[in-house]
Amino acid sequence: MISVKLGRYLIASTTLKAGTGAEVLFRVFTAGEKPVWLMNAHYYGGDISEGMQLFVIPPNAFVGGLKPSDQKGAIAITNAGVMSGGKGTIEAPSTILGAETGLNAIQVIPPFASIACSLNASNTAAMTVTLGGFEFDA
Questions:
Q1: Which of 6, 72, 77, 85 has the fewest CB atoms inside 10 Å of its own CB, making it the most exposed?
Q2: How far, in Å, are 10, 49, 84 from residue 133 at the CA level?
Q3: Following DSSP, what letter does each residue of 72-126 receive, concatenated?
Q4: How far, in Å, CA of 12 to CA of 32, rounded?
Q5: What is the pLDDT of residues 108-133, one digit of tens each?
C-alpha cells in the first residue's frame, strides 16, 4: 500500500459554450509542481445526443484546439460516450467517478500534466465539467 500525505485541495472547471466544435481538446485542469490525486469530478449541460470525454495530456505538451489524435501523448481517462449531455443540471450534476464512466478513483495526474475534454459532436447547449483533487505533499 502506498502512503501519501495530501496537500492542498484544488478545483478547476471549464464550460464549453453552445456551438463548440467536435473532437477538439479544451483544457480543464493543469497540475503544478506536485502530482494531483483526482478524487472528485462532475459535469452537466449539453443535449442528450452530445457527449464529452476526458484525456490526460503529458507535462508541458498541451496545445489547445487539436483533435485528441493530433495531440502528442493524449490518453483517454473516461470512456467515449458515457458523459452524455442532458443528464445533469447545475443543481444536480452527474458524477464522473465510478464504473459507469470508466474513470476510477485512483487517477494520479503527473506534475505539469493537463486534463482536457473533447466533445463527440458540436454541442447545442453549454456543457460544464469540474474536477477536484489533492496535491501530493512531500
A1: 72
A2: 5, 29, 23
A3: TT-EE-S-TT-EETTS--SSSPEE-BBTTTTB-S-EEEPTT-EEEEEESS--SS-
A4: 13
A5: 899 999 999 999 888 889 999 999 99
In b/e form, how buried is each residue of 117-137, taking b as 16+ CB within 10 angstroms?
bbbbeebeeebbbbbbbbbbe
Residue type, 22: A
CATH code (residue 107): 2.60.120
Q: What pLDDT is attached to residue 49?
A: 85
Spatial CA neighbour of 29 closest among 13, 42, 15, 47: 13
Range of the domain at 41: 5-137
Q: pTM to 2 decimals?
A: 0.87
In the block, which residue shows the cell 505539469?
A: 112
Question: For residues 1 and 22, which has the higher predicted lDDT (pLDDT)?
Answer: 22
Q: How many structural domains comprise the chain? A: 1
How many C-beta neighbours within 10 Å does residue 28 have? 22
